[in-house]
Amino acid sequence: MSFWDKLDMGKYALYVWGSFGVTALCMIVEPILLRSNARRIRRRIARLNRLEQ
Amino acid sequence: MQNRLINWFKFSSPTTFYPLAGRMAPIFWVVAIVLIGIALYMSFFVAPVDYKQGDGYRIIFIHVPASWMSMFLYLVMAAWSAIGLAFNTRLSFMMSQALAPTGAMFAFVSLWTGAFWGKPMWGTWWVWDARITSELILLFLYLGYMALVGAIDDRRRADRAGAILLLVGVVNIPIIYFSVKWWNTLHQGATVKMNGQTSMDETMLWTMLVMALGFWAYSIAAAMVRVRSIMLEREHDAQWVRDMIGNKT
């Protein structure tokens, strides 16, 4: 049995991949948003620092 | 004992916790990726096909850990808020706030994967069953908490209002947990039981536990990154923040 045969969920493909797919999406998007948010805040504080110099 | 107490209080200050959180986050990201990777491999290549549900049952490998995390993170948030109210520590409230979006995400994942399991197994995406409804209320509690804290400009008042909402909402957690016992509706009883009589194949159980540990590490990592942003945002006027960031972008 090959790798791809193992991943064929038969008549449950939509449900299994719909579940794992959306979960994966959530858990990939959240760290990306966290990272961009952290950068945005650091940039803003740096700008405030420059303005006050 | 004396030393330990001093150390705890030392880390309750944002100035010392900020770098600590920064060191912890990457470690927990790596742990999360490794554990979730192992659990995914076990989900599809090690765990056997269920004799009744075929491959469709594999959804529970994320559904159950996500449901556990959604309840567990809520309790952790409520505990941080209780500590914050009792000792008036800023960092406790920041920790509650940092966990909320991740908890809401797991509550959503729990409902979503439950629907995708329910459709082929029960024949319906959604029913107003006791457990499903109380989990939906948990998602609303998370969203309500985030909206409430975000809507109040005065940080101290926002923290207190949010903490009270969290503590009142704790009543929902035992309702979710015991719902399958108290009401005889559609959702099945617990598969993994506290008294050790688990009605499940051992490899399936291990897969679920490894996934739950992976989600747990993920939650810590996400909370550490988010709490750092919250600290910077709230204390952007403080000298330690200004000195640390400097004026380069």
Number of strands of chain B: 0
Number of domains of chain B: 1
Provide the low-confidence segments of chain B as ranges. Answer: none
* Molecular shape of chain A: rod-shaped
Radius of gyration of chain A: 21 Å
Order of helices and strands of chain A: HH
Which chain pair shows the most residues in contact?
A: A-B, 32 and 40 residues
Count of DSSP helices of chain B? Answer: 9
Overall SS class of chain A: mainly alpha
Span of the ends, CA to CA of chain B: 43 Å
Q: Could you describe the largest sheet of chain A, including whether it forms a barrel?
A: none
Average residue pLDDT of chain A? 88
Question: How would you characterize the largest beta sheet of chain B?
Answer: none
Question: Overall pLDDT of chain B, averaged?
Answer: 89
Number of helices of chain A: 2
Indicate the proportion of strand residues of chain B: under 5%
Multimeric organization: heterodimer
Order of helices and strands of chain B: HHHHHHHHH
The strand count of chain A comes to: 0
